[in-house]
Amino acid sequence: MIKKQLLSVALSSIALVSSAQWTLSGGHVGDRQFTEKSSGVYELSLPGDTIYGKFLLKNGADVRYGTNNTYVCPAMPYSLLTEGDSLMMASSIASPVLTLDTNAGTLTATGDVQPMYVYGDLAGGYWKSNHDGARELKYQGNGIYKGEVQMSGTNFAILQALCPDSITENSLRGDYVAYYRFAPVVNKKITYDTPVAMEKCVRGSEKNFILSGYWTLIDVTANMANVTAEVSEIKAFNLNIETLYVIGSDLATASATSRWTDSGCDSGIPMTRSEADGAITFAVNDVAIRATASGTEDPRGEIQFANTLGSWEEIRSGYSLGWTNTTDTLTLNASNVTTANVRDAGKYTTPFSLPTGKYDISVTFNPASATVLRAVQTSTSAVETVATDEADYNSPAEWYDLDGRRIPEPAANGVYIRRQGSRTQKVWIFSDK
Questions:
Q1: What pLDDT is recorded for position 21?
Q2: Is there a contact between 206 and 173 (Cβ–Cβ < 8 Å)?
């Protein structure tokens, strides 16, 4: 629950003029004029709006500037010492009510103080700057934001606010639409429990905080009062994966198959877990990767990795490993081997594509390097079936409701049970018609 906080800006060094012309000006809210409530006291209410980033206080043509390179923190006085850069919010405040007291030289804002966020090489949200990918740092008071973050890689940055889903990580550069991105003054490896000075990145300057190891669980503190960040290590190499499956568009071994659908994947090919030299490897041999679609000159199949099966929502709630944004097409070398970095991108995980054939496949998690997929093609033939495979595939589908009653077919949107041969799965039926 976001708590209401108090923002007090002390404008002590420059006397404020009492006038009915006081205006708040910001690119995100435009120009909004204060209403005089009493002698020298003005109020501006912005229900449904959010104030963030840069803003100015205007009195006619007379503009009051904020101190350069500092940030206005919720519940902390902010002194206007010199003319410099615009006033800058350290965090967003939703539905603020701003009171300007020209008698006391203060600006006070109440409202819902929004959290800050970490984004980067995160487990379940690889470099996603929106609510589905970034990790929340909750406001603690005194300009401090804290949160626990599970990393998959070593790099991250801090955001003041989140971008919409339509904005990709490649579009988030520096001060994009005032969704401020904070990073160290230089690319710097973090020394745990030691504050590091940070700054707002500008376009063309995408610096990152850097950790010493992969798959580390950390606690991140952003102190916007002195513009520093501090990282504490909770657990090094925090890899909580005991079981990993290969899932795909059409896979088979001598004893199992995996075919995903629009609603998910309820069958996967289990991999064997081993540990050596501090690294953890999951492997499986003789996996037939069959063509995604027939009739192509170079048929290719698609694979991903997951530790949870079921609906796509269930799969992505666990570790969902593959590529990001688009299918990554892998090419075999002269020895019929291919390798690629594997990323846990949550709902944004996309598959790898490999030429049809049989493969020995492994995924290795290492605290000192990126997670690596290695696939060795042992045969160009993808003929591999199990006893029930083709029978299941060709059997008529039977439908049931969630109470187990058989129905002719789904008649409305909802969750149903579909049985086809020996395969049974829950299916979400949705139509926008």
A1: 82
A2: yes
Helix (H) or strand (E) holding 315: helix 312-317
Work out whether the CA dihedral 413, 415, 416, 421 comes out positive or negative: positive
**What span, in angstroms and rounded, lies between the C-alpha atoms of 158 and 135?**
9
Segment 206-251, tens digit of pLDDT:
789 999 999 999 999 999 989 999 999 999 999 999 999 999 999 9
Cβ neighbours of residue 282 closer than 8 Å, sequence gap 6 or more: 241, 244, 271, 272, 273, 274, 305, 362, 363, 364
pTM for this prediction = 0.80
Tokens representing 31 are: 């120009």
Residue type, 154: T
| pLDDT of res. 396 | 73
On average, the pLDDT of the chain sits at 83
Q: Do the strands 251-252 and 279-289 form a parallel or antiparallel pair, or are they unpaired? A: antiparallel
**Residue 238 is encoded by which pair of tokens?**
């925090």
The three-class DSSP label of residue 94 is strand
Q: How would residue 116 be classed by pLDDT, with cut points 50, 70 and 90?
A: very high
Q: What is the DSSP letter of 180?
A: -
Question: Under 8 Å CB-to-CB from 67, ≥6 apart: which residues?
Answer: 78, 79, 80, 81, 82, 84, 85
